[in-house]
Write a structure and sequence with these properties.
The protein is of the alpha+beta class and about 210 residues long. It has two domains: about 55 residues; about 110 residues, PH-domain like (Roll), CATH 2.30.29. About 45% of the residues lie in helices and about 25% in strands. The chain contains five helices and ten strands; from the N terminus they run ββββααβββββααβα. The chain has a four-stranded antiparallel beta sheet. A three-stranded antiparallel beta sheet has the order 1-2-3, covered by helices on one side. A hairpin with a 2-residue loop joins β8 and β9. α1 runs antiparallel to α2. The longest helix has about 40 residues. The chain is elongated, with a radius of gyration of 27 Å.
């Protein structure tokens, strides 16, 4: 553990990389990856242009219904392309937020999960997709039944956060979650130690006054 002027930072060693640190005093906001959406927009433009070429008879020999198909394609692909372009700014907002106190994934719900309610963080891979698995404490596990969104995403009493479609790599997200979770546990331990010292100090002061 290394001291940091703005908060706590934990060094995480990787067997393939040099040690890296995550500043757990700052929020990590992760938006969706818009690369796929941009490719769909480009494909929509191409299909709209192809449909327009059929509608205005830019090509010959495509049959008697090429004009009708062209106009239908312009209407269909034009609307889809406009909708995709309208979606682009919305995809820029953060969908996963990792803070020193908890995590929220808008893809599975609007609830903010405190690190104190997470017992363990692990990584799994299924069908080529890597995911972060949060094991809730017994108290949070009982509350999951009252949270429909999280209950649907919970698998075997575990909360799964998929990494695909995010504008960051899996290792960065996993390291941030583990570091913030560890920092939260350290803060809780320090606070508990401080409270115990305060209680002992108060008891000693009361004993001195009583004597």
């Amino acid at each position: 553990m290394h001291a940091h002027p703005d908060g706590l930072a934990f060094a995480v060693a990787d067997s393939r990389q040099s040690a890296a640190s995550i500043d757990v005093s700052r929020d990590l906001e992760i938006s969706r990856c818009v690369t796929q959406l941009r490719l769909l927009v480009a494909s929509g433009f191409a299909m709209t242009l192809l449909s327009a070429s059929l509608a205005f008879d830019w090509w010959d020999g495509f049959g008697d219904y090429d004009t009708t198909l062209g106009y239908a394609g312009v209407a269909l692909f034009g609307l889809v392309t406009c909708w995709l372009i309208w979606m682009l700014p919305a995809e820029r907002g953060a969908v996963v937020v990792v803070t020193p106190y908890g995590i929220r994934d808008l893809r599975i719900g609007n609830e903010f999960l405190l690190w104190d309610s997470i017992a363990e963080i692990s990584a799994e891979e299924s069908r080529g997709h890597r995911m972060i698995v949060l094991t809730p404490t017994p108290a949070l596990r009982r509350q999951l039944r009252c949270i429909p969104d999280l209950a649907r995403c919970a698998q075997n009493d575990r909360i799964v956060i998929p990494s695909e479609g995010l504008a960051t790599d899996f290792e960065t997200l996993l390291r941030a979650c583990r570091d913030c979770h560890a920092a939260s546990g350290l803060r809780a331990a320090l606070q508990q130690e401080k409270d115990e010292r305060g209680t002992q100090g108060g008891a000693q002061g009361f004993a001195v006054q009583a004597s």
